[in-house]
Amino acid sequence: MSKILVIAEHLDGKLNSSTARAVSAAIAVKGEVIDVLVLADSVDAIATEAAKINGVSRVLTVARSENAHALAAVLAPQIAKTAAGYSHVFVPSTTFGKDVAPRVAALLGVAQVSDVMSVEGTHTFRRPIYAGNAIITVEADAAHTVVATIRSASWGAAATGTGSAPIEALTVDVALPTHTRFVELKQGSSDRPDLQSASKVVSGGRGVGSKENFDIIFKFADRIGAAVGASRAAVDAGYVPSDLQVGQTGKIIAPELYVAIGISGAIQHLTGIKDAGTIVAINKDGEAPIFEVADFGLVGDLFKLIPELEAQLR
Amino acid sequence: MKILVGYKRVVDYNVRIQVKSDGTGVVTDGVKLSANPFDDIALEEALRLREKGVAEEVIVVGIGPADLTAHLRNGLAMGANRAIHVLTADATQPLTAARVFLKLIEKEQPGLVILGKQAIDDDANQTGQMLAALWDRPQATFASKVEIAGDKATVTREVDAGLEVIEAALPAVITTDLRLNEPRFIKLPDIMKAKSKPIETIEFGSLDVEAHDHLKTTHYAAPAKRSKGVMVKDAAELVAALKQKGLL
Ligand SMILES: Cc1cc2nc3c(=O)[nH]c(=O)nc-3n(C[C@H](O)[C@H](O)[C@H](O)COP(=O)(O)OP(=O)(O)OC[C@H]3O[C@@H](n4cnc5c(N)ncnc54)[C@H](O)[C@@H]3O)c2cc1C
Ligand SMILES: Cc1cc2nc3c(=O)[nH]c(=O)nc-3n(C[C@H](O)[C@H](O)[C@H](O)COP(=O)(O)OP(=O)(O)OC[C@H]3O[C@@H](n4cnc5c(N)ncnc54)[C@H](O)[C@@H]3O)c2cc1C
Q: pLDDT tens, A246-303?
């Protein structure tokens, strides 16, 4: 019998949709018990949201001032302690989960399965390696707790609304380290949809040419209600901040529509979008590798084509 | 202070990975191997800290088979003072790698350990965090800026929401992101100089590290391919096609 503890990801008092996606993976394991653990300074709003996710048995909360910011060194001992009695601990494979989950695994003395794409059995999972160029089937030892991160792009969010799981406050009696201190979070201010959960994404690459030129990408994205992403080359060149990077070492996303503009289609970039519904590529080079994976390709100069597209949409 | 740097050898990032037809692995025979790009960045950061006078000694660490020596020489040519080669014929999972690093820490007492955030073969993204947990010290993962002042590191981290700044007491573990620095190129005279730098070889078996891995890889498969779509001739045709699919 599988008892699964899902670690909630949240920011500014709001639950991140990556949590409901991790719950989907827990449902795929056919967990008899699926509890969501909320660690925060003020837990109520987050716990209420988590309780609405269908399939959740209980929401467990640990309210401590030390949990105001997601510091892995502070959260991991609390998660490891709570994990006693659970067969699985699932954490979203976002920068939050990638930071904290291995620390939990090491405290429990077990290996970790990173980036679970599919569940083949209670202890058998599929995950990508080599930037998604190979998919391996991994079997975890059933004698130990499974610690896994769940690749968000592979899982739809478990439905919310009909769930009404009970919320229970826990006191976790464990000493917390003081060696790590949160200083600040510089968030890109944006009224645009969130890159990781948006149904449409427009990305620009080196072909856009400059920070100023990138306005054309932002405007087009706003026109169709899309989030904005970028290639590593565009981020490295300083056109946009790093949290917009899509790819192997950036965000892995699965929007219904992905529009790649002035992006060549390097394998490291494609890794980030291969689960997208429809891929559109706009590039002046008809031989660009991006066209190998695009559902719709349009060859030409982006500075001419984007205004034309906007005109069509008016 | 001393800095320990993880210096893993991986299949070069330009190689097109092929899965063996019998599903037992990926083809690694004859393919080009290079330093994990994140580890080159880790080494570069350590060297810069030494050049600033923050550190005195930079030690590159590799865990792997006998022929890893040539790879470690590259790390020495880039500028590391010496290398430690933990000799094992078996592939090391992250928890085991972390346990090995912990043993080396006990011996070397470094002020800082810098690893890559992920190795681009397994893409596990675990070793640094596991090491920090076992060592009971801070971790600053996905670093894009590192400043050391006294016994504190102030690290800017690339997180999904933006850039997070944390302060960690030393000793600590840092894992590198791509924008931390641009690694220097190795120059020919440095390759000559590296020949006389020491590489200490330690038998994995002599470290008394538990290596019962809990994960077994049972099958390798090629990823599902996206099929090539259609080329449209102009903006009007593209908009029409997307509208038809209900995407606009
Ligand atoms: C370890 C590692 C990890 C990496 N991780 C990532 C990652 O996470 N994400 C990522 O994106 N990359 C990543 N990369 C980098 C990747 O290999 C490529 O270098 C990068 O994706 C290239 O970005 P680009 O397509 O914007 O630039 P380029 O390859 O330079 O392509 C620019 C494209 O724009 C087109 N173009 C130019 N002008 C115009 C115009 N006026 N109109 C239309 N088209 C035009 C050109 O034809 C060209 O195809 C990684 C690399 C390494 C080694
Ligand atoms: C021929 C071959 C066969 C393999 N077969 C398997 C297999 O069957 N099953 C399997 O699970 N894995 C296999 N591997 C992969 C190997 O075991 C991985 O190195 C291991 O799982 C660690 O994962 P990672 O490097 O992605 O860790 P990450 O946590 O992504 O590594 C992060 C960082 O830790 C440091 N680090 C990690 N390992 C080392 C090391 N060995 N030396 C120095 N620094 C290190 C580096 O700084 C690295 O950047 C194989 C590798 C090779 C070359």
A: 998 899 999 999 999 999 999 999 999 999 999 999 999 999 999 999 999 999 999 9
Task: Of B149, B40, B164, B137, give the one whose Cα is nearest residue A94.
Answer: B164
**Cα→Cα distances B98→A105, B89, B137, Å:** 12, 17, 13
Q: Whose CA is nearest to atom 41 of ligand 1?
A: A301
Q: What proportion of chain B, given as a percentage, has pLDDT over 70?
A: 100
CB contact under 8 A, B235 and A305: yes
Beta pairing partners, A90: A6, A148
DSSP calls for A4-28: EEEEPPEETTEE-HHHHHHHHHHHH
How confident is the model at residue B116, as a pLDDT?
97
Domains of chain A plus CATH, in order, are 3-169 (3.40.50.620), 200-313 (3.40.50.1220)
The tokens of A133 are what?
A: 């160029």
Closest CA to A88 of A51, A38, A139, A33: A33
Q: How many CA atoms lie within 13 A of A276 on its CB side?
A: 34
In B88-138, DSSP assigns E strands to 112-116
Digit-coded pLDDT (tens) for B28-74: 889 999 999 999 999 999 999 999 999 999 999 999 999 999 999 99
Of B120, B172, B239, which is closest to A309 when you measure between CB atoms? Answer: B239
Reference A175, options A241, A119, A107; nearest CA is A107
Pair of tokens at residue B56 = 């005195």
CB contact, 8 Å: A71 with chain B? yes
Q: Would you call B172 and A278 a contact, using CB atoms and an 8 Å cutoff?
A: no
**Helix-then-strand count for chain B, H and E:** 6, 13
pLDDT tens readout for residues A223-252: 999 999 999 999 999 999 999 999 988 999
Nearest CA to ligand 1 atom 50: A268
pLDDT at A102 over 90: yes
Angle at the Cα of B16 from the Cα atoms of B72 and A231, rounded to 5 degrees: 90
Which residues, numbered 182 to 211 in chain A, qualify as contacts with chain B under a Cβ-Cβ cut-off of 8 Å? 182-188, 196, 200
Tens digit of each residue's pLDDT (9 = 90 or more) over B67-98: 999 999 999 999 999 999 999 998 899 999 99
The ipTM value here is: 0.94
Question: Is A299 in CB contact (< 8 Å) with chain B?
Answer: yes
